[in-house]
Amino acid sequence: MTAMTELVDLDRRGRVAVLTVNNPPDNVLNHGVRKGLTDGIVAASGDAAVSAIVITCAGRTFIAGTDTTEFRKPPREPGLHELLGLFEGSAKPVVAAIHGAALRVGLEIALACHYRVAVKAARFGFPEVQLGLLPGAGGTQRLPRVVGVEKALQMIASGDMIGADEALRHGLIDELVEGDLTAAAVAFAEKIVSEERPLRRIRDLEDEIGAARGKPEVFANFRQSVARQTRGFPVPEACIKAIEAAVHLPFGQGLERERELFLELVNSHESKAQRYLFTAERDPAEIPDVPADTPAQEIRKAAVIGAGTMGGGIAMNFANVGIPVTVVEVTQEALHRGLGVVRKNYENTAARGRLTVQDVERRMGLITGTTDFDAVADADIIIEAVFEEMPIKKEVFAQLDTIAKSDAVLATNTSTLDVNDIASATSRPESVVGTHFFSPANVMRLLEIVRGARSSKTTIATAMAMARRIQKVPVLVGVCYGFVGNRMHHQRGKEAEKLLLEGALPHQVDKVLYDFGFPMGPFAVSDLAGLDVGWRIRKGRGETLAVADRLCEMGRFGQKIGAGYYKYGADRTAVPDPDVEKIIVDLSTQLGIIRRPISDEEILQRLLYPMVNEGAKILEEKIAIRASDIDVIWVYGYGWPVYRGGPMFWADFSIGLKALRDRMLEYQQKLGGDHWKPAPLLNQLADQRKTFTGYHSTLSYEGLYGPRTLPGPHDRCL
Ligand SMILES: NC(=O)c1ccc[n+]([C@@H]2O[C@H](COP(=O)([O-])OP(=O)(O)OC[C@H]3O[C@@H](n4cnc5c(N)ncnc54)[C@H](O)[C@@H]3O)[C@@H](O)[C@H]2O)c1
Fold first, then answer.
1. Average pLDDT, stretch 589-606?
2. Protein residue whose Cα sits closest to atom 18 of ligand 1
3. Which pTM value belongs to this model?
């Protein structure tokens, strides 16, 4: 065996040269691998005793991507295109031997080989789209030539991986092999040579792309099929255009078009936002004073107190991953109702073909309902989801304190109450933490983990690990009214109501946010959630929201009764209601407000800038560790469009903090109100021309629990 570089070996097996990449863990392509492969191909090509070449990888996978750290360095020879040209142009057959996953550039290399063999467990894909990119080294030009245009569109624009069986069916691989992969690939190469099979250069294949020529409907249908779920993302259209180029242009020109489209995407705001979020989603795992090796409790058994809207959904999360969970209710009746909803949820999923009947029974079998509190004694984590009332919560926690085992984590799902106050009902506040699930709890991926003043590091590490185990995206936040998400959401809600009184109508406001990329505007969301929820909270707190209160007084509680800010037909489509317009206009008159036309630009700024300002306060107060955590919360919990990267990233890069701050000062002058006063951190960063995403804070409680003013009351903590 000869080492081409320390990352690539060249071996001879009879008349077949075997090039093995060894760059653990994912065999990513970097300069050393490119150089080793280039030297290996050149050496094998010049060796008269070699008739064919196999490329394979050591370790757990075929080449699964590129070393992205090289993007920031000057390019080094040999380049990727040169390497691909060597593979494809080789006069001796080149066979890719694939195990693990051939992803991104790995699949592009495999496609530049003349033949491909793979083990049954191998997977193939171009997940670049998830970062707002397309495969930029010939992937969009070669894949349709081998699997056909429709399959290529689906694979490249969706980013979904396919397995080896499917790859074989679509001609992406030539043979499925068993046993020793390298030996099987060598045998395959021998066969090619013996049979004198021609070199199969994908760039020269015509049949599949020829079949799509003159059929614009293939592309039109695909565009239509993805339009809804990819609204606002430029990347699917770029993928489609690149594949259109594969169909209509000669290979070389197609590559140039692919390059152009790739560069447009790389430099687009949207792809930058997607790449930012990709890292941001992994950041919340890093908690400065709770390092990754902090011991966490293993969760073998869980318990949930309360089987209402949230409790049932929370219990499902545990059952879904095979963890037994005990659900405690006050009465048999409430228990029966709650578990009935859980069963119905599972059965609905099964009816849609996404679970089998056996799965439903297995999961229901993991959920044990009881009215006996003692049944939680052996649970490793107990999550309380009872009514949102402090005396009830405290009573439950005092009871848990006497029953739960000593190392159990005691969690509360409160959305508005002080976690420290709840913890004070126990003799072990270090074991208490908030786990703020979002509704529906079995669906929404976000989980705010609320760190109490005395929550221990093990408690935090356990809650974070538990969240990941049940496939949530956990973000650590501090205690304040509304935590991070609802606290910012409240700012938006207040301003939306003001806009109505000043001259806008619900559908205008909603359209602005829909066009921005949210799945729904604030009024459509309120109608869906039920206006009565916020009304009850407001009444309890002695607060008012003129329009919302008036609608509730009239019984217009939202979609569930067919009327709220909109009226709803049988198909639940929201239709602007002249009655609501009259209510709003009358209220403006009563309040002495002269209505005026309000531009879409003003609506957007007034809804989103105060949220960003609140985010700045959240960072200052160390309620969130970093700006990207706030962005993750908004993307996963509130439908902030992924391609805009979250409110803080958007403020940093789409608006600019100075422009945002200056506009806030103008609104402060024009409209008045404390929420227009720029937060000190916003002022500071705007003056220094810096960004939120460049500013990190450490979530510690020093200074936080002295006398301090909590942010104002929040009525929309759902
Ligand atoms: N609904 C939401 O959208 C949402 C979102 C996030 C957080 N939360 C929070 O989750 C918690 C539960 O909310 P929900 O919407 O599920 O309420 P819910 O009214 O639907 O359910 C509460 C359940 O708790 C039960 N319960 C009350 N006291 C109990 C006790 N002592 N022991 C056992 N069970 C008891 C009730 O019988 C009821 O079934 C609240 O703290 C709420 O603020 C709700």
1. 97
2. 308
3. 0.91
Residues annotated as catalytic are: 108, 128
Q: How many residues does the chain have?
A: 718
Poorest-pLDDT segment among 279-288, 478-487, 578-587, 679-688: 279-288
Nearest C-alpha to atom 38 of ligand 1 is from which residue?
A: 308
Distance CA 515, CA 518 (A): 7
Per-residue pLDDT band for 541 (boundaries 50, 70, 90) equals confident
The DSSP symbol for 646 reads: -
Pick the residue whose CA is nearest to atom 33 on ligand 1. 329
> How far does the centroid of ligand 1 lie from the alpha carbon of residue 341, in Å?
14
Ligand 1 atom with the shortest distance to the CA of 311: 16
Please choose from 328, 336, 392, 415 the residue to mutate so as to test ligand 1's pocket, defined by most ligand atoms within 8 A of CB.
415
Tell me how far apart the alpha carbons of residues 76 and 85 are, in angstroms, rounded to a whole number.
16
Distance separating alpha carbons of residues 140 and 261, to the nearest angstrom:
11
Q: What does the mean pLDDT of the chain come to? A: 94
The answer to whether residues 433 and 417 touch, using CB atoms and an 8 Å cutoff, is: no
pLDDT band at 6 (very low <50, low <70, confident <90, very high): confident
pLDDT in tens, 351-382: 999 999 999 999 999 999 999 999 999 999 99
Mapped onto helix, strand or coil, the DSSP state of residue 640 is coil
Q: Residue 542's CB: how many other CB atoms inside 10 A?
A: 7
Q: Tokens 């757990």 map to which residue?
A: 60
Q: Give the phi and the psi of residue 447 in degrees, each rounded to 5.
A: -140, 115
- pLDDT-derived band at 141, boundaries 50, 70, 90: very high
Q: Which atom of ligand 1 lies closest to the CA of 384? A: 11
The residue behind tokens 């929820």 is: 533
The pLDDT, as a whole number, for residue 705 is: 31
Tell me the CA–centroid distance for residue 308 and ligand 1, in Å. Answer: 5
Gap from CA of 449 to ligand 1 centroid (Å): 18
DSSP 135: -
Rounded distance between C-alpha atoms, residue 607 and residue 502, angstroms: 14
Which of the listed residues 330, 342, 387, 413 should we mutate to test ligand 1's pocket, taking the one with most ligand atoms within 8 A of CB?
A: 387
513 CA distance to ligand 1 middle (Å) = 30
Tell me which residue has tokens 């040169």. Answer: 82
| Residue identifier of the C-alpha nearest atom 6 of ligand 1 | 438
Q: How many CA atoms lie within 13 A of 600 on its CB side?
A: 9
Alpha helices in 24-93 (DSSP H): 31-46, 80-89
Confidence at residue 697, expressed as pLDDT on a 0 to 100 scale: 56
The one-letter code for the residue type at 417 is L
List b or e across 23-58, with b for residues whose CB sees 16 or more CB atoms inside 10 angstroms.
Answer: beebbbbbbbbbbbbbbbbebbbeeeebbbbbbbbe
3-state helix/strand/coil string of 290-345:
ECCCCCCCCCCCEEEECCCHHHHHHHHHHHHCCCCEEEECCCHHHHHHHHHHHHHH
| 708: pLDDT strictly greater than 90 | no
Return the best residue to mutate from 370, 373, 386 for the ligand 1 pocket (most ligand atoms within 8 A of CB): 386
Please identify, by atom number, the ligand 1 atom nearest to the C-alpha of residue 393. 31
Residues with CB under 6 A from ligand 1: 305-311, 328-330, 334, 338, 385-388, 392, 396, 413-415, 437, 439, 718
